[in-house]
Amino acid sequence: MDLIIRSAAPKDLPVLLDIINHAILNTTAIYDYEPRTMDEQQAWFEKMFNDGMPVVVAEMEGKVIGYGSYNTFRPKIGYKFSVEHSIYLDDKSRGMGVGGKLLGSLIQRAKESGVHTMIGVIDAANRGSIEFHKKYGFVEKGYLKEIAFKFDQWLDVVFMQLLIEED
């Protein structure tokens, strides 16, 4: 497997849009209901770039198969050293180590940017994602019951945290 992790570029937006829209329509990995438009995805990408927040893609054999990003956890100034991350993969790329490579890249970028803590907000039923995060040093720090509603059901959320070690 020849996997490349790199910064996303505008040319990647159609694939990123396909990946996120699949997650919106078919999973509880994201609590949006409606698919995004290209204009919305482009506005998100431009804001991330302008805010200095990373968007990284996993590319294999010239094809983008997943992406990850992080952004400020909450908008108050006191949270400026805390970020919430997201990773999305296309269906065919699960279980191949792609998510770990994306997360590793985000952790490294966070470290280089002076981030103190990374937070994952995960659907509590997604035990695979919770175990995945534990493998990379994240610790469960909170559980919120019935905080979201999607697919005609109430959803619980687990907060996971990684304190970034300073070199």
TrEMBL record:
Q: Name one GO molecular function term.
A: acyltransferase activity
Q: Does the keyword Transferase apply?
A: yes
As given in the record, the signal peptide range reads: none
Give the E.C. number(s). Answer: 2.3.1.-
User: Is Transferase one of the keywords?
Assistant: yes
Keyword set for this entry? Acyltransferase, Transferase
Return the CDD domains for the record.
NAT_SF
The record, for Gene3D superfamilies, names:
3.40.630.30
Which organism was this protein described from? Dyadobacter linearis
Q: What is this protein called?
A: L-methionine sulfoximine/L-methionine sulfone acetyltransferase
Cross-referenced SUPFAM superfamilies: Acyl-CoA N-acyltransferases (Nat) (SSF55729)
**Residues in domain N-acetyltransferase?**
3-165
